[in-house]
Design brief:
- Strand 6 and strand 7 form a beta hairpin.
- Strands 4-5-8-9-11-10-12 form a seven-stranded mixed beta sheet, with helices on one face.
- It has one domain: Alkaline phosphatase D (PhoD) (Purple Acid Phosphatase, chain A, domain 2).
- By secondary structure, it is of the alpha/beta class.
- The two termini are 21 Å apart.
Length: 334
């Protein structure tokens, strides 16, 4: 039986080191949560006894074609009353990044005119402290460090909206933007990310990205729409993974899957209550298959057992797919 220390954790700073040693830590994962739909999946997530939950974007659907934020305000008001009290009021850790539907414009990027106002609404909804760097800078990216059984874990949340260049479209699909200046993260966030990953003393890094990093073969939003940016990120991860374990977590797709290359595993957990179409989809880096149904993910970090487990579950809690990531023994020594 796993041993958990239940501690009140609030997201009041971009870097927070937990002073209390815990032996394992379990996050629930999910994205694409429409405030106008029913949310029965929370009962299954409750049974997982998670220590915290990571919202991976599209945490409400408040965007409008004209970009105004009147619907966003209403969406947050509705969602506030729909998120379960056991999660929001019961000493659980909450982390959140955003995607286009809680950013304010479908597939929106840096040209969205109300992004500053949207950021204020996001920070207010998630109770981000005024002293948090996200409250005083552009973009919602953040990092925090925690200690799990003597192993330092750094969680890095990326903002893939605020600074992103225009998408290029070809018929009903997005095509690669090969322009040298085209970006997803923007210069400041890139500098911050590279410094964070290169200088951290953590043995494990968890990267949160609203859009998928590894998938390349579907026609929708993904890092592969900006091949130079994706190459830069993969190169960074490759270098850092020489002495660290990297896990990526993403959402957006209204379908779930687990992907893997030579350097890290990525779990996509989407959607909590808005499943995707049944269209077939594959990818050379996909493990098994995708699951276009209501689902949630689990990220279970167990240094004492020398492993991290990522898993996808359906609305009833049944495991659809899972992957065990072994931790090198030297990374788990206290």
């Amino acid at each position: 039986m796993k041993t958990y220390s239940w501690i009140l954790i609030t997201i009041i700073s971009s870097t927070l080191v937990m002073p209390v040693n815990v032996y394992a830590y379990k996050y629930g994962l999910g994205s694409c949560l429409d405030q106008d739909f029913e949310q029965p999946i929370w009962s299954s997530i409750k049974e997982e006894n998670v220590d915290g939950f990571i919202f991976l974007g599209d945490n409400v659907y408040g965007d409008q074609p004209n970009g105004t934020l009147s619907k966003m305000k209403t969406a947050y008001e509705i969602q506030k009353n729909k998120l379960p009290s056991w999660l929001m009021d019961n000493e659980k850790e909450i982390l959140a990044i955003w995607d286009d539907h809680d950013y304010g414009l479908n597939d929106g990027g840096k040209d969205y005119k109300l992004k500053k106002e949207a950021q204020k609404m996001f920070l207010n909804f998630w109770n981000i402290s005024p002293s948090d760097p996200r409250s005083i800078r552009e973009g919602t990216y953040f990092k925090k460090t925690k200690n799990i059984n003597g192993t330092a874990v750094e969680i890095i949340g990326l903002d893939t909206r605020y600074f992103r260049s225009k998408l290029l479209r070809k018929r009903n699909a997005y095509k690669p933007n090969m322009q040298p200046e085209a970006t997803i993260l923007g210069q400041k966030q890139w500098k911050w990310l590279e410094s964070s990953m290169n200088q951290t003393t953590a043995s494990i890094i968890v990267i949160l990205s609203s859009i998928q990093i590894l998938a390349t073969e579907h026609p929708y939003e993904k890092w592969a729409n900006f091949p130079l940016e994706r190459k830069r990120l993969l190169n960074l991860i490759s270098l850092v993974s020489n002495d660290k374990t990297i896990v990526a977590v993403s959402g957006d797709r209204h379908r779930a899957g687990i992907y893997k290359n030579n350097h890290f595993v990525e779990i996509t957990a989407s959607s909590l209550n808005k499943p995707g179409s049944k269209d077939s989809e594959t990818d050379k880096l996909l493990i098994d298959k995708i699951f276009p149904e209501i689902n949630y993910g689990i990220l279970d970090i167990e240094p004492e057992k020398n492993k991290i487990t990522v898993s996808i579950h359906n609305r009833d809690g049944l495991v659809l797919n899972s992957q065990i990531i072994k931790l090198p023994l030297e990374k788990t020594e206290a």
